[in-house]
Design a protein that fits this description.
271 residues, 3-stranded antiparallel beta sheet, 11 helices, 3 strands, 4% strand
């Protein structure tokens, strides 16, 4: 099953399944008991965060699900009786009003010409890094000013508008577009997206920004949307979340907008 997944899933889950294989060894399926799996979970938890441990459990759980439902090797999965670890509330780190211009200025002067457009797209659309780096020119519609994310985390295609600087950045890229690769942000050989980790670390240092990950640009975009009056439903649609649970952390930022909506309704009801 694994080779049919996305490249990112193959890398991550492949290493997780290799750990299980090395940890359990050549034992029979009947000997893979919940108690044995709990012991493995607890060993993982000694030097891994709860979310990471749960990722290992999820990867192995999928293998058991296929064995049960498709191959009928087992009556049920032993992982159904293994509890996942409680995960702490997600990070809420966002760029401050002082940090944002410093970061963008550092990106503008970075030797890596792709860093600024990638960061601008992340801030303006809330897209994940891999979603942006995976963009091809077939996904870009400059006439309609949109980009379509084909390979998203939840495997649903998502179209996002390009406005202001984000549109300008993509238009500039189109002027110097390479003909030997379909990717917007290709590495030198054109076969895969560029690796921006070193350039990203450098601009954070130059901008004097600490405790900030690339994924926090997504949180920043969601926060800006909430403060601009977007509803939680709208934020979820833009970020690609299927439920509102993942965007509840931004609810307090939209309170001012909610209050104004209620005020307008009451003005109509009680003139």
């Amino acid at each position: 099953v694994l080779p049919r997944k996305s490249p990112g899933s193959v890398r991550t889950q492949g290493s997780q399944l290799a750990w299980w294989q090395a940890e359990l060894g050549p034992i029979r399926l009947a000997d893979v008991t919940p108690a044995r799996l709990v012991a493995c979970r607890d060993r993982l938890a000694e030097d891994h965060a709860p979310a990471t441990v749960n990722g290992y459990l999820a990867a192995f759980s999928h293998a058991f699900t296929v064995a049960v439902t498709e191959w009928q090797w087992l009556e049920g999965s032993p992982l159904e009786r293994v509890r996942r670890l409680r995960e702490p509330q997600g990070r809420g780190r966002v760029l401050t009003e002082d940090e944002r211009p410093r970061l963008l200025q550092a990106c503008d002067v970075s030797p890596n010409r792709f860093l600024a457009p990638v960061v601008v797209l992340a801030l303006s659309t809330g897209a994940r890094k891999q979603e942006i780096l995976g963009l091809t020119w077939a996904d870009v519609d400059l006439r309609r000013a949109t980009v379509t994310l084909q390979h998203t985390k939840n495997r649903t295609r998502r179209t996002l508008p390009l406005t202001r600087r984000a549109l300008t950045e993509v238009q500039q890229l189109a002027k110097v577009r390479r003909l030997d690769t379909p990717l917007l942000f290709a590495r030198a050989d054109g076969r895969a997206p560029i690796d921006l980790r070193a350039a990203w670390a450098r601009v954070l240092q130059e901008a004097g920004i600490t405790d900030f990950r690339f994924h926090d640009l997504r949180h920043s975009a969601a926060s800006y949307l909430a403060m601009s009056g977007a509803s939680l439903v709208e934020i979820a649609a833009i970020l690609g979340h299927r439920t509102l649970q993942m965007v509840q952390r931004y609810a307090h930022l939209a309170e001012g907008h909610t209050a104004s909506v209620v005020a307008r309704m009451n003005a109509t009801l009680f003139p």
